[in-house]
């Protein structure tokens, strides 16, 4: 493996369609597995058993960046190392497929950021062993531990100036800390 700043691998996403559980949802769509190094696909049927159908929905690039190695370590250190797949509702109404595969990421932090939005669906899928090895090799080359350095407070004193005293926006001639007086009721604003 070379010491490039970024590396990319095409990863196919397999989505399973099952009959819906309620009468309001005809189908249930869920990503179920990954295909590292897959070729291009657009909802190609892989397997069909009764009403259950598995599609090779899309192939997207999984990009690794040198600056995100801490996030990759977090994903690798899970009980089951995982990749995050981000899906959004499809724009086209006439399609049979209601989802667009938007992103595949190995960054646990990026997956969490997308999970905070209600506009997309984020699924956590187990990494195949080859993908785990590829990401681990990238992290071993590029990861640098950051040493925590506690900041020290400045020696400058900030308590010497009183807020409000001498402030030209305050029209009081005497005590700036007194309660403001009420206006008579007969005056208009």
What's the gist of this structure?
Helix 1 runs antiparallel to helix 3. A hairpin with a 2-residue loop joins strand 3 and strand 4 (52-65).
Largest sheet, in brief, is: 4 strands, antiparallel
Rounded to an integer in angstroms, the radius of gyration calculated over CA atoms is: 28 Å
> What is the ordering of alpha helices and beta strands?
EEEEHEEHEH
Range of strand content: 25-35%
Shape: flat
Poorly predicted regions are none
Report the span from N to C terminus: 74 Å
- Summing up helix and strand content along with how strands pair, one would put the structural category as alpha+beta
Mean pLDDT: 82
Write the SSE topology.
Layout: E1 6-19, E2 27-36, E3 44-49, E4 52-65, H1 69-76, E5 82-89, E6 99-105, H2 108-115, E7 121-126, H3 129-142
Antiparallel strand pairs: 1-2, 1-4, 3-4, 5-6, 5-7
Helix pairs in contact: 1-3
Give a written overview of the molecule.
With 189 residues, the chain is α+β, with helices and mostly antiparallel strands. 16% of the residues lie in helices and 34% in strands. The chain contains three helices and seven strands. It has helices spanning 69-76, 108-115, 129-142, and strands at residues 6-19, 27-36, 44-49, 52-65, 82-89, 99-105, 121-126. The strands form two sheets. The protein has a four-stranded antiparallel β-sheet with strand order 2-1-4-3. A three-stranded antiparallel β-sheet has the order 6-5-7, covered by helices on one side. Helix 1 (69-76) runs antiparallel to helix 3 (129-142). The N and C termini lie far apart (74 Å). The model has no long low-confidence stretch (mean pLDDT 82).
